[in-house]
Amino acid sequence: MTSLQPHGMAMLVFTVIVFAIYIRDKFPIETVSIGILAVLPLAFTFFPMQVGGHTVDALRFFEGFANPALVAICALMIVGQGLVVTGALEPAARRLAVWVARSPKLALLAVLVGSGSVSGVVNDTPVVVLLIPLLLAAAHQAKISAGGMLLPMNYSVLIGGMATTIGTSTNLIVVGLAASLGLAPMGLFDFFPLVAMAAVPALAYLWLVTPMLLSKVETPNEHLIDDVFDAEIHIAEGSQFVGKELREAIASEGHNLHVIDLLRDGRPMAKLSTRILKAGDRLIVRETAKRLKQVESILDAQLHQVELDTAQDGEAPTENVASALVAQILVTQESPLVDRSVKQARLAEHYDVIVVGVRPSKGTTFWKRAGLADRPVMTGDILLVEGTEEAIREAQRDGVGILLDERFALPRQDKAPVALVTMACVVILAATKLLPIAMAAMCGAAVLVLSRCLSWKDVAQSMSTKVVLLVAASLALGDALQITGATVWLAQGLAQLTQGMAAIWVLALLMGLMGLVTNFVSNNAAAAIGTPLGFSLAHAMGVPPEPFVMAVMFGCNLCYLTPMAYQTNLLVMNAGGYRFSDFVKVGTPLFVIMWVGLTLALGARYSLM
Question: Which of 133, 171, 273, 300 is least enclosed by beta carbons within 10 angstroms?
Fold first, then answer.
């Protein structure tokens, strides 16, 4: 076993520190990634290293930004955005929603198979984002809990994503790194049969067992149509109820009005039935979206226009907002509204859209502290907004949230065939190896922009700064571990520890280790480090490197155990009302099923058993 040089030891310590920071999740992933890209070049500048008689160029750690894997990831984000923006997948998804209402059990099977199949060629996140509101609405119509469908659907998407080289960014990173290490390039569907073998029992588990495990989950967004919202009714000058008692206002509405609080000059007042109402008072009420407009009319008042304070010179938003449509928007994790107040978001100024109500994801105690305009928006909240149809569509297109109203079709649906054909061509070109994945995807992105399926704003919206920086940092960290000999040293050490063990057991341990790591740190970062480790381990044992590289890739996709393991996990957690324990309870058996199935499939294919 070769000795570890100081540079290699330093890289191992640095890697442990990076993992610890990722696990603590105290700093944003972007911040940690930039830190890695800053520290590595500086370290090799002030502490040069000789390899083969030449000094390592510190600027090589920036080459990840030009890596074909990153180019492919970015281009595929754009192509996937084309399917979302044009609504190309929506007809099929809406048919699934109808099936859910008619036959929930069979519909769940269709959702699992359909979503898993699509995610092999489309980024996981758009698939999950598209299906969440549709499944919530369908579950409401069928009067069943959506909790038994959302998490299985999410896991099926993750399983499908690992089946092709373009299914996830993790797969692309592993394939790109393996090719740079000398492994023959992998085709689009080269390892699809292996994943399919393991997916059969996994999908059976998701279909038959997980709904029972999740039977007690109370989904907060199950009643989208009749959901009640907390809203502010503004008693304006000239209202017939100015100078009258609160009970008279309630009586005029048929004694059915649920008044949560009364705010005067921004301060809560006791809800005394004899309280005399004054101009400027705000009644905090809880009603359905349909009845809020009736209440507004009956009380001779108006839904409080919370963004008036942000308009220039005190002017209200444009006139068309006052007579606009009412829609529901689900706030996702990526929304720019998260952790900001409605007043700070300035939706009226940017979109001519005002927030008139909210269905909080976590209770309504904030009304005692602040009004609607000052209350921070949280992931999972459903906002009731007013605006023109085009303004609301624009807000959705810019990522403010997901529209839950079916009447708001996605924009540019006439371009849906172009988006579908473009995606099909990218897949065919990559599958037949007529073009590299990066080149095919970039050509597809160009077609979508030139055909005006996507605007440049859509392109910018599809790009994830987090992914770009994380991929570049992961590639840099993996490169540093490789050139310093740290991965070879670890591989030789692991080979010694497993000396005498069958190759299949070593492969299983490697996959299981990467699977555990990826549930607490970035799967892309784990893949960048694990790929050269698996490659070196295979050579140290004298076995083909292909199964060990794929073991790393599969392990880094087993992100089922924690909600923070993957971004779609967090999305369904908020929408479905799941707890951390639900992921552990449902994800652990799935982890074991996929781990054992993939290990056996690799062992059989490469004669390791």
Answer: 273
Tell which residue, 429, 399, 418, has the closest CA to residue 166: 429
Token couple for 131: 């299906």
Half-sphere exposure of 322 (CA within 13 A, CB side): 7
- Portions of the chain given CATH number 3.30.70.1450: 228-403
Indicate the burial class of 174 (C-beta count within 10 angstroms; 0-12, 13-18, 19 or more): buried
Structure tokens at 167: 């299914």
CATH superfamily of 228-403: Regulator of K+ conductance, C-terminal domain (3.30.70.1450)
Pairing of strands 259-264, 282-288: antiparallel
Instruction: Report d(CA 548, CA 336) in Å as an integer.
Output: 41
Q: How far is CA 606 from CA 491, 546, 555, in A?
A: 20, 9, 18
Q: What is the three-class DSSP state of 327? A: strand
E-state strands within 381-449: 382-387, 402-403
**Angle in degrees, CA 474, 557, 458, rounded to 5:** 70
Cα dihedral 132, 136, 138, 144, rounded to 10, equals: 130
What is the residue-averaged pLDDT of the chain? 77
So what's the pLDDT on residue 294?
61
Residues 6+ apart with CB under 8 A from 69: 169, 172, 173, 175, 176, 177, 438, 471, 475
pTM for the complete prediction? 0.55
The helix/strand/coil state of 55 is strand
> Between the CA of residue 287 and those of 172, 293, 299, what are the distances in Å?
48, 10, 14
Q: How many CA atoms lie within 13 A of 8 on its CB side?
A: 15
- Model confidence pLDDT, tens digit, residues 249-272: 777 655 456 777 777 776 777 767
Contact 193, 354 (CB under 8 A): no
Residue 252 near residue 230 (C-beta atoms within 8 A): no
